[in-house]
Amino acid sequence: MADHRRGFFRTLGMFFTDRDRLEPAVISVLAGAFSLLAGVLLIAVASKNPGESIWNFLVGPVLRTYNLYYVMVMMVPITFAGLALCIVYQARYLTLIIDSTFYMGAVTAAAVGILWPLPPGLHPVVAMVVSGTVGGLIGMIPAVLKLKWRANELVSSIMLNYVFYFLGSCVIIYFLRDRNQTILASLPFLESFHLAKLIPNTQLHAGFLIAAALVVAVAVYLYRTKWGYQIRMVGANPRFAAYTGFSVAGVVLGAHFVSGFIGGVGGAVEMSGMYKAFIWQMDPSYAWDGVIVAMLARRNPKFVPVSALFLAYIRVGADFMSRRGDVAFEFITLVQGMIILILASDTIVNYFRTKRAQAQALRQEKA
Fold first, then answer.
1. How many domains does the chain have?
2. What angle is formed at CA 64 by the lines to CA 62 and CA 67, rounded to 5 degrees?
């Protein structure tokens, strides 16, 4: 027991003394803290009653138990998006096709939930597998375009998001729509399709546990399997990876398929856990949420839940504040934008690393 404790404190001490590990973590924490402070200052300027508005924003999510449950519910799709992007970011690909995989995963799950009568428990699992497969195939498209024709994956993924949004909308309108409803909605899902509620009379569903399990699975996949090692090697140096015998194209396509699979499963979980029918009038667009979460987590799936909790918390706080005050919910987009700008500036970390390397080189010359 004592050996385990010494090992734990030794690892903890190495983390806090290893600057290469500590600096990115500090940048992530400072990005969240600075953007939160900037949001508070913005509220103070915009609100006629800044004290109450700031209180509702910062404390609102924990004032009621229901609000706390809502934070946990909101974490679920954000966690799926963050995990999906962690994988492709490890391969050094910047793609936003997660929007398409998530949306088409939800559409596919809706079709399974309406048209396929299956036993309870098995029904949502089948929907997740089918939706994940569809999402995985969609997720590979930007990678194929990049590998085959050198098309920029960011541009192609953004364009494809529009294509698949309208494709999914056509499926709902022409094949699954409930003509008896005055709004655009699908036929109701079969009862066996729904995920169980973890707490009665709340929206917290079993998808929260699925997302938690997936965090562990992705962490093991990236850091404890040969496929994850290949993804990280290709991301670090594709030429060296090819020289050592890796199929760079195969690794990249595999990473995009797994990423898309996670996005598709996320869409299926959202449908079976939250809705009685498909009623999305617009694409929910979780791609940028995934970008923020993956960047705050520094592409490490182990830290995705913390990042997702932070983002969900400020979202619920902004919603609570807008309902009880005079500051619009949309102000939260400014906070998110500041997070992205700060984290995207890796030159901060590189600057300190360069300075430290120069200092070490000077010390060696003098010695």
1. 1
2. 70
